Amino acid sequence: MTDHPRFAVLLAGGGTAGHVAPLLATADALRERFPGLRVVALGTAEGLEATLVPPSGIDLRIIPRVPLPRRLSTDLFRLPARLHTAVDIAREVIDDLDETPDVDGVVVVGFGGYVAVPAYLAARRAGARIVVHEGNSRPGLANRLGARLTTYVATAFAGTPLPHATHLGMPLRRSLTTLDRLGTREEALRHFGLSARRRTILVTGGSLGAQRLNSTFAGAAPDLLDAGVQVVHVTGRGKSLDPAPPLPTERGGAAYVVVEYLDRMDLAYAAADVVVCRAGAGTVSELTALGLPGAYVPLPVGNGEQRLNAAPVVQAGGGLLVEDAACTPAWVRNELLPLVADQNRLAGMAESAARFGIRDGADRLCDLVATAAVGRTGTSQEGRAA
Q1: What is the pLDDT of residues 82-93, one digit of tens each?
Q2: What are phi and psi of 349, to 5 degrees?
Q3: What is the dihedral of CA 12, 14, 16, 17, to 10 degrees?
Q4: Cα radius of gyration rounded to whole Å, the chain
Q5: Which residue in 27, 139, 274, 285 could disulfide with 170, CB within 3.0 to 4.6 Å?
Q6: Above 90 in pLDDT, residue 272?
Q7: CA distance 87 to 106
């Protein structure tokens, strides 16, 4: 491709970090690869994208939120009108991009969620090329639809059941894919006020937090500190630990650092020897890309995709799978602390996680977008529809 690509890209994905994070990583990789490329994002006013996308310098176009009802309800009867409006707006955005000088076509890249369905349908109507990226091992409804409309389908995990799927990995931020954990460890420990002589556990339930992890580690904090293990605990916005962990001077001298949210997850990863976390697709992909052992505690609700996300990593030896109900202070004492103390076992898990992980998922997805841009329409129809 030239430095001045003759295509534009519409990125569609929103609502949660699982959709927005890979969208932003892909946008960064595309703009780095193709200087001058016009990139626009499609989202809703209520989703996380409304907060995260504009500061990244990407033009965000708003469409109505169109939830897809999974059971009979009044929302089902409102769906056609809502969807029609959202598709019309998405089509207008595609047409606007296609009319940009020196642009010969538009590639719509969808990451699933509420925003993706209108984008896929508008792209099909406009004859635009479609690229689908599915982050979970079990695909959602939006991407199951999208994969029927294109041959350009990428997945974060091997074995995701979608037609035409190619396993490319998860698009991740450059701050993570370029992270030298060993070289950054001293800075990371200093940032959190931790000691280089102690092992470090990172506990995180993501930006929203996980009550199970918060309550378990609040109860286990004295045992962890007595064992000389230091902790960085990301509780989630608006959440705290009850009871609060003892001070280092009270129990063993180790530190227990509690924060609601971290802008520098790269430093948290660099400081950690093991991570206790939920098993969202982004988290699993980040840990394995960095070669970090994970104790994965899948969310016990939903359609079970978190368990499926973590299972292959655990089978490969790169982590543990812990049932939500089994994640208790007793588990911390009897299972986690012995693991943290076993340097050889941790090193083996780290190597296995690294062999499983993919660091260049964003670049691989860029390759697929470029292929779609110069290839056939990638949709189930030829040419443009009126």
Answers
A1: 889 999 999 999
A2: -65, -40
A3: 50
A4: 22
A5: 285
A6: yes
A7: 16
- Element of type H or E holding 317: none
Give me the residues paired with residue 226 across strands: none
Q: Which position has the higher pLDDT, 70 or 1? A: 70
Residues belonging to the chain: 386
Mean pLDDT of 143-168: 96
Helix (H) or strand (E) holding 19: helix 17-33
Tokens (6 digits) for 54:
């504009």
Phi-psi region of 69 (alpha: psi -120 to 50; beta: other; left: phi over 0): beta
Could you tell me which residues come within 8 angstroms of residue 134 by beta carbon, excluding any fewer than 6 positions away?
A: 112, 140, 143, 147, 153, 154, 155, 156, 160, 162, 165
Q: List beta partners, residue 225.
A: none
Residue 276 CB partners (closer than 8 Å, separation 6+): 201, 202, 203, 204, 213, 217, 294, 295, 297, 327, 336
Question: Is the distance from CB of 305 to CB of 284 less than 8 angstroms?
Answer: no
pTM of the prediction? Answer: 0.90
Output the pLDDT for position 79: 67
Residue 144, SS3 per DSSP: helix
Report the alpha-carbon distance of residue 320 to residue 349 in Å, rounded.
Answer: 9
Is the model's pLDDT at 73 over the cut of 60?
Answer: no
**Helix or strand or coil: residue 249?**
coil
Average pLDDT, the chain: 90
DSSP class of 379:
S
Listed in order, strand segments (DSSP E) in 86-199 are 106-110, 129-134, 152-155, 165-167
Q: Which amino acid is at 127?
A: G
E-strand stretches of 63-164: 106-110, 129-134, 152-155
Q: Find, among 132, 134, 159, 135, the residue nearest to 148 by Cα.
A: 132
Q: Is 66 exposed, middle or buried (0-12, 13-18, 19+ CB in 10 A)?
A: buried
Residue bearing tokens 């030298």: 180
pLDDT score recorded for residue 378: 46
